[in-house]
Amino acid sequence: MILKVNEIKKYFQRIFPDKRVEVKEISKISGETVKEDIKGYGYGEPLLITVTIDQQEKKFVLSTVKPGGFGHDFFYDRAKILLFAHSSYNKLPRHVRSIDVGTFLKDGSLVPLGEAEEFFLIMEYAEGEEYFRDLERIRESDELSELDLKRAEALSNYLVEIHSVKKSSPDLYIRRIRELLGDGEQIMGLIDSYDPKADFLEEGELIRIEKKCVEWRWKLKNKTHRLCQVHGDFHPWNVKFRKDIDFTVLDRSRGEWGEAADDVSCMAINYLFFSIQKYGELKGPFEKLWKTLIENYLEKTGDDEVMEVIQPFFAWRGLVIASPIWYPTMSPEIRRRIFNFINNVLETDIFDYKAVNSYLK
Q: What is the pLDDT of residues 18-44, one digit of tens each?
């Protein structure tokens, strides 16, 4: 991007609106004076800005975060770091003070955000009915229509399409697998939300699951070639169908890139979940939906390896659907079957999607 000297001057006037402000000098920390616009300004390169405010000279540092590994890959990662800095620096004794946090626009102008309380998002409204309504109908009626099968195939085709977009970034794949375990919304965060003394849990079971998932992290770390475009939260509450197989997806989460097994497991486990509620196992119409989703995906991607990496993702999604927080009225028996599934899946090297009921025992 181009860093415009004149825009920096405008910015300082905006953050000190009631004072007489003059930018005297802009230089790199190394000492090189900046007199003209900087083409190709590199993020992570701090600038020293000398300003007079009501004739009193002050010096400020304009700091950005360098892109790259260690969780700095995307602009929203870097925004999080800078927002934290502004909100916390001034609370700590003897810490250098933060004056503002802002953003660069595409035209090179700078916008202050230091007075922000919360951020918000405005989206289009998606017409249609959430896909989980279909699954509720099937559970109650015990009937499966041809359209139901077509919709499961359409969802599978969607995953085939988005997962075909690959990215070469080994560090990012390792990060995504690390976050699968340690993030507050993922395995360890979910485990922390459980009462370890709940009546449907065995003593020490949550500890054993967590340890097994750590082992799986080390199994998956060398699978970096699998990094692809993902949705990240592809479940029936995040899909809206309109007529026939026309649908819109909602609430993409946890990054643009990840492991394909995330999306496959997220939708598939909900077929299992609704089936367990009805039959105590994968059976009838839900078994047909399960096979349609997975077999179509395997046939069109040729990705048999997905069954060698899907285990910790099933464990994570199992922890979600067994949760008393999200499903407070579910019986202990159903929760127990889900935990049987989690434990057994984590013990298998190659997931056998045709023998799902054996994992429930």
A: 889 888 888 887 777 877 776 656 667
- Of the candidates 291, 300, 292, the residue with the CA atom closest to the CA atom of residue 260: 300
List of domains in the chain: 2-112 (no CATH), 129-360 (3.90.1200.10)
> Looking up tokens 């109908």, which residue turns up?
137
Q: Which amino acid is at 56?
A: Q
Sign of the C-alpha dihedral computed for residues 18, 21, 27 and 31 taken in this order: negative
The fraction of the chain above a pLDDT of 90, given in percent, is: 71
Number of residues that make up the chain: 361
For the segment 278-298, the average pLDDT, to the nearest whole number, is 98
Alpha carbon distances (Å) from 243 to 128, 131, 135, 151, 326: 8, 12, 16, 11, 29
